[in-house]
Amino acid sequence: MQSYKLYTLLACIIGIFSSATAQTSKSYGVMLQRDGNTTPIKLTWNSDNFTSAYIVYRKQPNTVQWGTPIATLAATDTTYTDNVVSGTWEYRVQRNLTNGKFGNGYILTNATTEPLHNKGRLLLCVDYNYVLPLQSEIAVLISDLVGDGYTVDTIHVNRGEVVPNVKQRIMNWYYHNKNQSIKPQTLYLLGRIPVPYSGAIAPDGHIPDHKGAWPADVYYGVDNDEKFTDAWNNIDSATGTRNDNIPGDGKFDADLIYPDSVLFEIGRVDLTKMTTFGKSDTLLVKQYLTKAHNFKNNVFVPNRKAIIDDNFGVMSGEAFAASGWRSFAAALGKQSVDTGDFITSVKSNSYLMSFGCGAGTYTSANGIGNSSNFKSDSINTVFSMMFGSYFGDWDSDNNFLRAPLCSEPMSLVSVWSGRPHWNLHHMALGYTIGSSTQITQNNVDGQLLNPKQQAGYVTNAFPTYIHIALMGDPSLRLFYQPKVEALTATSTNADTTQCKIMWAKQPNAIAYHVYRANSEFSLGNLIAITTDTFITTTNFMQGVNYFSVRAKYIEESASGKFEQLALASKVEFAGGVKAVGVQQIENNKIDVTVYPNPAKNAITLTGDFNQAAINIYTIAGQLVHKTDAVKPMQSLAIELPSGVYFIEVITAAGTGYRKLVVE
């Protein structure tokens, strides 16, 4: 039976020892990129003076086994041409170093293919504290997610809810949808969603003062709870009590998830306990959501460059910064990767990607800076990989790993990369950071199996351990293109049985994809692909329809060309009948919120009112539910068929209308 070898560090504590050779971490990260987009596929990489040979492997992207090498090359070679002419392939180039160690680089490349329309279901877990104060920002977030191809489901979670209950709600969502045509894909934890803790680990090597339970968001994505017991770990050696793990304390025993795996992509935006920034966590999350919206909608467009600030070096072959060298080259090209001081560089220039490492504390990394720098300085980078002692344990106060998310104007992602290495090369072809997270969490490094195999990606250490986590929106991708503008939908006849959808021509777009849905929480079905700037259609239902248009572009990265869709622009159209309340549903003269929405068999109203009368209408105007006296936070049972409805809310302050989707 295969098993992971126990990992023993000769120089376990980060920052104490380093290699005496003249090598740098760059030797351990082969900077692969594709030369053009023609066939056959030609790969190029950086030369290195400490190389004895190169070994080239190729596999299909959904497999983990690299198999036997397809080529062995001389130490002076920096190119390889593969005569494969179709399909998507992943390559690994291993650099055999003269000191007996290895460097590696990875690239995913293909022929230009159709873009992905349906990105699956995304469960948005929203901290109850944000439901009302961030109502507008959350609505914009959902609109952007839907516009990017996700079907969005939402649940609200209390901060005091116990972790297993939250897990059960997430798994209920997973099992309810796993056999549907649109399957569970992503979990977005927004706010102080209860934090699972697990293990008796110290990935930064600080034993005993940092050995114990670490935050473990992977718990929410692993179906098998057999190893997530709370029975046998009994450790309290860490400084403070947060990492203590004793039987029955609500913290789990598991150190790693192998041989299980994380079922979906997981990302967290939790900005609590970040008092250094002088803002409440509500305002910090509001700021983050605005930044994310601006990035996705091209309000700011960073330079397609990367910066690496490596304050560790080779570190006996661990070469933490190799994560950056290989990932950034595959995405942006080896000529677009700079070195320099992290804070100074991102203050004076913008970088899409960045890596910084140095001996750490919970709130700093030597040579990089401290959490306060992310408050006082402009941080012009979006995707950050960082590494150093202590701060990978991200649930600490004013934590350095979470600090970029609190900064301005554009930082959105932060991960602790080095133990294990993260690999972001898939993002070069349009994959999300959530996808890279799941790949990293599930990555089985074949060199740490017994017996060894050519499988997975190099990790250094701690593969599939519970501490691997994404700080940021899991739906984010590297590249976004401009949306269509001036979208309209108008009837072309008196009985509104035919609709003309028009939009403005978008420079550089090669086509437009048109979708129709009967819910605002999904793109629905693709009904047309056109190079024109209009369509005329009868492909809609009676009542409210949601038409979306996405511009299609040819995107090019250092891994090749691929087709990618911009976020959707959306317009409503009432077909067949004049829908009651369509023009009134945005009436916000009264303060009232309806949740959950979509709903199944019950709704709750919140707002500044003492009592309200509720009328629910179909989109054709038929009254289907009436309640004369509803109080705030009162659960109201509804038994309605799936569809779109309008709620009329009558209070002493006036009357308002809200849209309701029943699943």
What's the helix and strand layout?
Layout: E1 3-4, E2 33-34, E3 41-44, E4 51-59, E5 71-74, E6 79-82, E7 88-97, E8 102-110, E9 121-127, H1 135-147, E10 151-157, H2 163-177, E11 184-190, E12 197-201, E13 212-215, E14 265-269, H3 281-296, E15 306-310, H4 322-332, E16 337-339, H5 342-348, E17 351-357, E18 360-361, E19 364-365, E20 369-370, H6 373-376, E21 381-387, H7 403-406, E22 413-416, H8 433-442, E23 449-450, E24 471-472, E25 488-491, E26 499-502, E27 511-517, E28 525-530, E29 534-537, E30 543-557, E31 560-565, E32 569-575, E33 592-595, E34 602-607, E35 612-618, E36 623-630, E37 635-637, E38 643-651, E39 654-662
Helix pairs in contact: 1-3
Beta-strand level of the residues, as a percent range? Answer: 25-35%
Q: What would the principal axes of the Cα set say about the shape?
A: globular
Report the helical percentage.
10-25%
Fill in the CATH topology of the domain at 488-575: Immunoglobulin-like
| Low-pLDDT sequence parts | 1-12, 15-21, 577-588
Task: Please identify, by name, the CATH architecture of the domain at 488-575.
Answer: Sandwich
Give a count of the beta strands, DSSP E runs of length 2 or more.
Answer: 39
Question: Roughly how many Å is the radius of gyration?
Answer: 26 Å
- With strands numbered from the N-terminus, the spatial order across the biggest sheet is 16-15-17-21-22-24
CATH superfamily of the domain at 488-575: Immunoglobulins
**Number of H- or I-type helical stretches:** 8
